[in-house]
Specification:
459 residues; alpha/beta; Aspartate Aminotransferase, domain 1; Aspartate Aminotransferase, domain 2; 5-stranded mixed β-sheet; 3-stranded antiparallel β-sheet; binds pyridoxal-5'-phosphate
Length: 459
């Protein structure tokens, strides 16, 4: 009996199902052409398995759905707001919380309050909306993630870590006064869902405290990060994820949250902060951009679903199955020799498009091309995270990120293991005919966050 492994399985069962549409190759060819070879512009009705994002695509539990029926839709002082406030305080430990319609609403408010023109914001790799709000507020983002994070082959378990030397150099160069905060993401999205270690975070806290610099936590995927700490960091193997999450938050001064990820809701977010002055200012600004500080652009029912979802998101059983499914898909792809970012991250499998399509130069968008080829093969929708997503610098030059990736992002509690098999098989079929695949040119480019709406043509 010794060699029989024990599989994890989902800690939930199905009560309702959503029927999906299957498409033919001819239908997909037409749909992809109409969408300008940008998977963001496909109609969801033309998609079979949708791995575009894990944002707002999770399945809510029966508890959350019943919470939706308990929405208190008062304009001011909804009881759901107070429930959410209490949960944020209890689960994450932050003192003050303002709901926002989603993560970028919180980023906008926070950037406006903390950043002055000419400021420097160091961070463990950029995120699209986060960096843009920092730039729009007059700041400049500086990447201080460890070099390993830019190497998809490197198997270091904490590729979300900050290189403290890089930060010290910035402090020396610009002075601490020019650095309003360090922007720290847990489970770094653009690096492939890679975690930061508790040890690194603790050291970062010590260094920033010395220079009186705040740490603002992009806590969008904090539970997934906590799971990796439990699995891989010494001293945490017996700690519940819930405790680890709280410890992570305790080393930071505030947070922006996109609850559409970890927190298992379809819409919502918040800004959390320990500093009363910042909170007061945020309460002023939220009225301008989102709504009154007790709803921030959300319905009462949305806040209730979020409050319940946060509780579910830090359960060990939930997070083990969630990350377990992602790892299952990643291992399946490795069996087919598909080049992926290692270690496998928390919210998706990131395929290395530079390795997959080595004959396509970055100016012809290998990752964008690969994402469209996978859709054409099977109707599986993925997204580009490479030169298109990276956008342009303030001076108009393209950013050329080292990582040119296609993200196969797994929604939480939505797809089955059989779906994971279909996805890996489709990627393998495209891989088999990779030599015949040609790149693309961009024929339409929007001014901001171009990856959302850019259009392409095949070369
Ligand atoms: C999604 C995301 C955001 C932005 O949140 P929205 O809810 O999409 O506005 C910010 N940071 C990270 C790491 C994210 O993944």
């Amino acid at each position: 009996m010794k060699n029989i492994k024990r599989s994890w399985a989902e800690p939930y069962k199905m009560k309702m199902v959503e029927l999906m549409k299957m498409t033919t190759p001819a239908q997909r060819k037409k749909a992809m052409k109409n969408a300008g070879y940008n998977t963001f512009l496909l109609k969801s009705a033309d998609v079979y398995i949708d791995l575009l994002t894990d944002s707002g695509t999770s399945a809510m539990s029966d508890h959350q759905w019943s919470g939706m029926m308990m929405g208190d839709e008062a304009y001011a002082g909804s009881r759901n707001f107070y429930h959410l406030e209490e949960v944020v305080k209890n689960v994450y430990g932050y003192k003050y919380m303002i709901p926002t319609h989603q993560g970028r609403g919180a980023e906008n408010i926070l950037s406006k309050i903390l950043i002055k023109a000419g400021d420097i914001i160091p961070g463990n790799m950029y995120f699209t909306t986060t960096r843009l709000h920092q730039e729009l507020a007059g700041g400049k983002f500086e990447d201080i993630i460890i070099d390993e994070a830019h190497d998809p082959e490197n198997e270091f378990p904490f590729k979300g870590n900050v290189d403290l030397n890089k930060l010290e150099k910035l402090i020396k160069k610009y002075g601490a006064k020019k650095i309003p905060y360090v922007s720290i993401a847990t489970s770094v999205n653009m690096a492939g869902g890679q975690p930061i270690s508790m040890k690194n975070l603790r050291e970062l806290r010590t260094l920033t405290k010395k220079h009186r610099i705040r740490i603002i936590h992009d806590m969008t995927r904090v539970a997934e990060n906590a799971y990796f700490i439990q699995q891989k960091e010494k001293g945490y193997e017996h700690k519940p994820v819930k405790e680890i999450v709280k410890e992570i938050c305790s080393y930071t001064d505030g947070a922006t949250m996109s609850a559409k990820k970890d927190a298992l809701v379809n819409i919502g977010g918040f800004l959390a902060i320990n500093d009363w002055d910042v909170y007061e200012e945020a309460r002023n600004l939220v009225v301008v951009y989102e709504g009154l500080h007790t709803y921030g652009g959300l319905a009462g029912r949305d806040m209730e679903a979020m409050a319940i979802g946060i509780g579910e998101s830090v359960s060990d059983d939930h997070i083990r199955a969630r990350v377990g499914q992602v790892i299952y898909l990643g291992e399946k792809m490795m069996e087919y020799d598909i080049p992926i970012v290692k270690p496998i991250g928390g919210h998706g499998v990131f395929v290395d498009a530079k390795k997959f399509l080595p004959h396509i130069p970055q100016d012809n968008f290998p990752a964008q091309t690969l994402a469209s080829e996978v859709y054409l093969d099977s109707g599986v929708r993925t997204m580009e995270r490479g030169v298109v997503s990276a956008g342009r610098k303030a001076n108009g030059e393209n950013y050329y990120p080292k990582l040119e990736l296609v993200r196969f992002t797994i929604p939480r509690r939505v797809y089955t293991q059989a779906h994971m098999d279909v996805i890996a098989e489709s990627a393998a079929r495209v891989y088999e005919r990779r030599d015949k695949i040609k790149g693309m040119k961009m024929v339409y480019e929007p001014k901001y966050l171009r990856f959302f709406q850019a259009r392409f043509e095949k070369l």
